[in-house]
Write a structure and sequence with these properties.
The chain is built from 2 helices and 2 strands. It has 101 residues and is mostly helical. The chain has a domain of 48 residues. The longest helix has 27 residues.
Length: 101
């Protein structure tokens, strides 16, 4: 690796401990190492471990994105009523076949 990261002597052991939490295939990544060093300088080992946790956890490979379907619109049938002041009734065409007998 041409770009070597210089870790201060006071942070070397802490840097190694936090780096051990990163998966082996990502430990050589200079960006991850710089992030660890930055978090160590800003907030210590606790902050660095908390921020490295998402990097250390593997992304699930069997995830699928499903677009939600819109809910169907249900329209209730409209019943026509003939309004008579004394006797409101349904018209003949609105009655069900059982009521027409």
């Amino acid at each position: 690796m041409a770009d070597k990261l210089e870790v201060p002597e006071t942070l070397k052991m802490t840097f190694k401990r936090v780096l051990q939490r990163v998966p082996a295939d990502r430990r050589d990544n200079i960006k991850i190492q710089k992030n660890i060093l930055l978090f160590l300088k800003l907030g210590g080992e606790r902050l660095a471990r908390a921020r490295i946790k998402p990097i250390a956890s593997p992304f699930p490979g069997n995830i699928s994105v499903v677009k939600p379907r819109p809910l169907p619109v249900v329209v209730a049938p409209v019943v026509k009523a003939v309004v008579d002041n004394k006797n409101p009734t349904l018209t003949e065409e609105d009655k069900s076949p059982e009521e027409q007998d």
